[in-house]
Amino acid sequence: MAGPVLEDKFSTVGLFTRTVHVQLHPFSICISASSKQCCSCSNLDTEIPIEDVLGVSASSSRSAWRSTEDAPKYLHIVWTTSSKASYKGLEMNKLNQRVITLGPSSSQQQNLFKSGRLEQWVKCIQYYSKGLASASLETICNYSPVSQKPILFLVNPRSGSGKAESIFRQRLVPLLEKAKRNYQLMLTSKPNHGRELMSEMSPADISKWCAIVVVSGDGLLHEVINGIFERSDWATTCQIPIGIIPGGSGNGLARSVAYSKQELHADNGILQSAVGVIRGETKPLDLVCVETSEGPIYSFLSIGYALMADIDIESECLRFVGEIRFPLWSFVRIASLRLYRAKLSYLPADGHNTTEQMRRAKREGSFLKRRRSLKPEENKGLQIDKLDRERYFSVSETNYDSALCDSSPANSCREYESEPESEQNTFHSLKEFNDIAYSKLSKVNTPDLGVPSLDEPVPSNWKTIEDEFAILYAVSQSHITSTCCVSPFSAPSDGVIWISMVRKGYFPSRKIPRVLLAKYLLKSENNGEQAF
Known about the structure:
By secondary structure, this protein is of the alpha+beta class. It has helices spanning 107-114, 117-129, 137-141, 164-178, 193-200, 203-206, 218-228, 234-237, 252-260, 270-279, 307-314, 325-335, 355-364, 386-389, 434-437, 514-525; strands at residues 6-12, 19-25, 28-33, 46-49, 53-59, 74-87, 90-104, 151-155, 183-187, 211-216, 242-246, 288-292, 295-299, 302-306, 340-346, 427-428, 463-475, 498-503. The strands form 4 sheets. It has a 7-stranded antiparallel beta sheet. Strands 14, 15, 16, 17 and 18 form a 5-stranded antiparallel beta sheet that branches. The protein is elongated, with a radius of gyration of 27 Å.
């Protein structure tokens, strides 16, 4: 086995000072207590995988987060560890940030540091953390890294309770600087500003970024995505990764990504989202194209109608309280329930099962067979190209068997009791209301998705329901906020749309029990562990 690339003795900086032996290998940093010290120091022994290192720096400050221009005396290493944690009966992975500061163990070593030894440690750790091949110390010290494109951060300072900018400056900037990641900050100043920036930025300017990351709620990311689809070069621009650091009142996507990775959403998911951005972790994300009479829009989270849309829009008056505005307004709206008449047409996913079968399938593994075509199987002439137009659909049962509606009689909704209706029906995804209020929907480019338009009949293998709905909700992700899980089986790129609905025609009394709606929302707020 080859020897270490670098090897030195250091003194730990902190509550207790200990002399440690540190070795750098191409795949790890080994820290062990000096053999001459007491056995109680053995807990200092640790091995840091190079791939877990977030950043390294050398400075004259004992603090890892304070930059100085004086001759460096201390080496700072920031890395992450993962531990198991139980959350509501589920075993999750908890991401932890660790920092160690190492100083000279003697006056002789202090002189060595002045001669550039610490800079060698920094360069070598940075070199191997990029996954580069083993090389000599001289080669590594002379290595000039390829210039990386900067990350564009869009921050909405008014998002949620107004903490997004402080999250960026206090939590993200120190990590970005430790990781030596170039970035640029843009603050949004008005509704739909993110959409304007994305749609109007020149191809040369937008190609300067290696990624576009929003620090806000889901609304700003919605603006960014729809702004990209307004561009004439949208197909190329879509190749630029997009990301989100939760900083708003609705942080459903960040929570859904963590849920799919079985990560504990501690600290509102800021650390794990930041780590993913810094390391350049990417994965596909389903988008849903929503056709409206005003034009198409794209949704990545949900499409809400009736109760869920009312809660989202009307709770804007409580934005200052943050994410809790959604459950608070839920009870206001349930107390004064509105019903909305609608026609729903959908294509069930192959393998759709009952609630009990879903529970069993969840224990045994996957239960959905993805449909390869949106058209009836017998119509061979209208097969959809798998690469460009593949879409999958599913209808899930709601949290309550009594609220199922796809098996009720077709004529159950022909007659219904007249009830007061709202002044206007609402139809939009669960996100910031300003996304729709200020959108220029007709500008969005849409590829041929292979589905009928609003004024065309649906294929014969689709199902249609017309009724008055209290809840009609289609989701692409597991969570619609950081605490509200409405679709625990969803994954970011599973190609399945889950639909929850509560409709008047299902109930023999033609009255929807308000207690059912309250329990539905409470179970969703309980992260959906009882939903199926």
